[in-house]
Amino acid sequence: xxxxxxxxxxxxxxxxxxxxxxxxxxxxxx
Length: 30
Description:
Structural class: mainly alpha
Number of strands: 0
Distance between the termini: 17 Å
Strand content: under 5%
Helix content: over 70%
Oligomer: single chain
Low-confidence stretches: none
Number of domains: 1
């Protein structure tokens, strides 16, 4: 979750943030 926040702040684009969240939850699901 910390990495997501760091990425979200670094790239202030909602698409990047959304992609990071989806990828994170996808990894957790599998």
